[in-house]
Amino acid sequence: MRFFYSLLLVLLLGCPLLFAGKTPNLIFILIDDAGYDDFGFTGCQDWETPQIDRIATQGVRFDHAYVTASICAPSRAGLISGRYQQSFGFEENLTGGLTEPIAPEQFGLPRNVPTLGSLLQKKGYVTSVFGKWHLGEHDHFHPNNRGFDHFVGFLGGHRSFWPLEKPNQAFNLMNNREVVKTPEYLTDHLGKEAARFVRNNKEKPFFIYLAYNAVHSPLHARDEDLKALSSIEDKKRRVLGAMTIALDRSIGYVLDEIKQQGLEENTLIVFSNDNGGATYLKTNNGGFRGRKGSLWEGGIRVPYSLHWKGKVKPSVSNVPVNTLDISYTFCKQAGYSEDELQALKFSGRDLLNIDEAKGDTVPLFWRRGNTSAVRYGDWKLICFNNQPKFLFNLKSDQTEQLNLLKQHPEKATELEPLLRTWDASLPEPLWTKKYSKRNDQFMMRYWDQK
């Protein structure tokens, strides 16, 4: 009997350690084309986003966070691989306007590039995608062939939020490989399906890539959500707000299910946006210059937060980070060793191990066509045709109004070699757009369009 009680005491005392070492569930919530200031935690006054705010205010809010591209598909290729997408030639969107035609079986995420899904499968995770894929429509690009056990979504870059009138390969709603009807407003459906996945897989480590197409065009909203914003006079802004309310509600389905299943302390959640706001749809980029498609802050700076109850304290980080860090962070939590992480050649780093006090800065890079940029510390250099064009101190000038290239040539001299070395390491793009080689005057006008 004494032995029994001794054994019981050991087990009880050991339980916290056992649970502390449990492999965490991993959720990445990605939204589409949203404005930087269109959420409560970033300062929106036009509508409320309590569910999204839960992630940000109860976790780490990264105030200097970036994507690796200012447009949808390349940004997604980077974050799902953990590598700069230019390093494997994925530099432009999967749309028309190409300089040369490309076969459908080559028009997507190269098959030799591992995805976060495939990497987590190797560590015993059940993996899923809900929403917009946009990494290739040919069968060998299908999520089920790229490391994801479960897929509810569509293969293309945008679609109606309501049931389709005509079938379309890129826009059909799919349950794995089966084409299914859209039973309700798509944003609500995706959140409910992700919550169902949590419920059905609560006994094993899971990864959810919840990739909404909201608030990308077309502007479609439920009447009930529109009525809640009847005081907003601008029609586009009102519809955008209604779409954001639905987005917030849908994310709430997942957060509530995590809580109901008792998984909050074993679930790491990251929230972000795929590129800067599409201001022509009346998004609010919070004063940042530019929009989606540009290398101004308004095209590449995004809301970004990380939540892990009991593991991460509420805080605000001013260290520059980007979405490449998600794959590194998730793989490390899944059990990859430092040697294995090095072998994967990730471009990111561990979001849970950034030294705020030291600044812990690394250079961040961008390239699209004949334009490129680097941010290192507080400074950002933008080049056209490999020639320095703009230099900004983002600590004192976040809206990029004061070009300091002439006043601080030494900073340009410091940053330019970093950008040139990175650029020289990249292969030629797998496909290019006709407009991607335009002169700097054209690109400037395009970047600054409202």
Automatic annotation (TrEMBL):
Record's keyword annotation contains Glycoprotein: no
Domain Sulfatase N-terminal: 24-336
Keyword set includes Transferase: yes
InterPro entries with a match to the protein in the record: Alkaline_phosphatase_core_sf (IPR017850), Sulfatase (IPR050738), Sulfatase_N (IPR000917)
Domain of life: Bacteria
Record key words, sorted: Hydrolase, Transferase
One Pfam family hit: Sulfatase
PROSITE patterns: PROKAR_LIPOPROTEIN
Alphabetized GO MF terms: arylsulfatase activity; transferase activity
Family membership noted in the UniProt record: Belongs to the sulfatase family.
Protein name: Sulfatase-like hydrolase/transferase
